User: Which sequence fits this backbone?
């Protein structure tokens, strides 16, 4: 355990102990140069930032990346937030929601809200996570994993495996996957599950059947372009596993408009089990994720971490078979 104290940092910087304390807690009332000077000195001396974490957690900031703060993402992240809100209500903890982008001053937002702990939901750039980590407050990642951080995730690898296995067992020979950016931990794991299921079934993994869909700016057009490509292959896909339900619904819409019968001509499976999946025509097969449970588990980890060595929690998922992949 580090023996470096606030007094040591104050002596090294020539600042008062009070100024050092406020800087390390990211409180208002000083210049950014002073704040950086204190933080850099604390890091150099080996100060134990966990000393700032003492005391009961009364306020939690729920951070959501601006790319997830969209209509396409809200069917997933809204229930995650709801689960976190319900857990906070039970515990008597205040929860504030902050949508941030990579170029926005996230530390300024943290100082404004003055939380005792932080939840980051979904993808965040490594630079943003590193800056947040240096704030020294308890932090949990939800639907994201990174070394050195506590995280809660659905069993993405298992889900990708189950979806692909289901399609193969249904007799499909050319199973494709529509992915988002593999920089996202959850998508990367779903893709790994997809490949593992092919390998275990002794099915050749054809790189032509793996397509990354642009995640921003194109709406459904990126999915339509991906489906045009898959259906134009000399040996076209007869099934598609999509990395989330929004993509699967857009793929299904394209196929139906192209005159294909689902699942007779092409089977489609999504991931997440958002409300629109069961209401689709035909109803969408998908991997069910306990979204409220994810948010609640993040709060529980912050407030009642049961084991100091625990760094990751994996929430089980379930294969839900509906008409989009099963013509029985």
Assistant:
């Amino acid at each position: 355990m580090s023996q470096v104290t606030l007094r040591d940092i104050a002596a090294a910087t020539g600042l008062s102990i009070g100024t050092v304390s406020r800087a390390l807690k990211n409180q208002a009332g000083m210049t950014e140069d002073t704040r950086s000077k204190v933080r850099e000195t604390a890091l150099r001396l080996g100060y134990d930032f966990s000393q700032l974490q003492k005391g009961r957690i009364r306020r939690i900031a729920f951070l959501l990346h601006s790319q997830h703060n969209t209509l396409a993402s809200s069917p997933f992240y809204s229930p995650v937030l709801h689960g976190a809100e319900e857990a906070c209500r039970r515990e008597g903890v205040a929860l504030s929601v902050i949508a941030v982008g990579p170029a926005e001053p996230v530390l300024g937002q943290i100082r404004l809200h003055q939380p005792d702990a932080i939840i980051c939901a979904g993808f965040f750039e490594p630079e943003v996570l590193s800056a947040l980590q240096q704030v020294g407050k308890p932090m949990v990642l939800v639907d994201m994993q990174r070394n050195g951080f506590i995280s809660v995730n659905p069993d993405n690898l298992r889900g990708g495996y189950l979806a692909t296995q289901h399609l193969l067992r249904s007799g499909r020979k050319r199973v494709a996957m529509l992915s988002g950016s593999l920089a996202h931990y959850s998508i990367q794991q779903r893709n790994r599950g997809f490949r593992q299921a092919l390998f275990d079934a002794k099915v050749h993994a054809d790189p032509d059947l793996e397509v990354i869909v642009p995640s921003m700016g194109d709406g459904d057009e990126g999915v339509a372009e991906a489906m045009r490509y898959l259906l134009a292959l000399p040996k076209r896909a007869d099934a598609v596993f999509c990395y989330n339900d929004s993509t699967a619904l857009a793929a299904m819409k394209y196929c139906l408009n192209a005159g294909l019968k689902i699942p007779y001509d092409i089977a489609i499976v999504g991931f997440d089990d958002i409300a629109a999946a069961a209401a689709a025509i035909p109803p969408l097969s998908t991997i069910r994720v306990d979204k409220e449970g994810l948010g609640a588990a993040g709060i529980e980890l912050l407030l009642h971490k049961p084991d100091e060595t625990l760094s990751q929690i994996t929430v089980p998922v379930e294969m839900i078979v509906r008409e989009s992949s099963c013509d029985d």
Q: What stands out?
A: The CA atoms of residues 91 and 303 lie 9 Å apart. The two ends are 62 Å apart (CA to CA). The longest helix spans residues 74-91.
